[in-house]
Predict the 3D structure of the following.
Amino acid sequence: FEAVPNEPFMRLWCAAECLGAVVGGLAHQPEVLWIEADVTHHAQNRFGRGIVQSGRHAHDLLNAAGLDGEGEIFGASDSGIDHDHCFFHDPVHNVPFMFPAGQVGRHRSIARYDYQESVMNDQSKKDRVMGHGTHVIGSVLGWAGQDHNMKAYHGIAPKSRVAFYDLGLVSEGSKMQVPGPLHQTV
């Protein structure tokens, strides 16, 4: 089991064949108020691009018609982007961290990457591996190359770029913080 710091609950793991006995035994304890499954979620975007574009997993109709995001920059905020992930790799241009207002860099997929300086440092300028921000932005513009083994997971608009604001609090795990006043930050 694992006691969760600062939380009034614990996590318990057991072999599948023991689950009924463990749950039954715990349910009869007066201290136990609630029992639920802790489901681990995994990003599974293999068919996302086709489903969004046509309603069918194998049809990339918009990309086939030339609508692939080329020349477009969209804005997003999330827990961060793992810019070392193959979907965002650019061997020529660095990620444009904290560029002056109104300016963008030349990175292939990240036009700019801003963050709240009071909660970030050089070691934390990216999402943990496969975090939520990486998943979301990869779903939109992820592109690892036509011959890469991840090509089935490419984003909906793989030639677009993102102007990103990192809301992640790296020191506090998966928590995010919206800076204020927001209209002066973005």
Observations:
- The chain has five helices and five strands.
- Residues 17 and 23 are 12 Å apart (CA to CA).
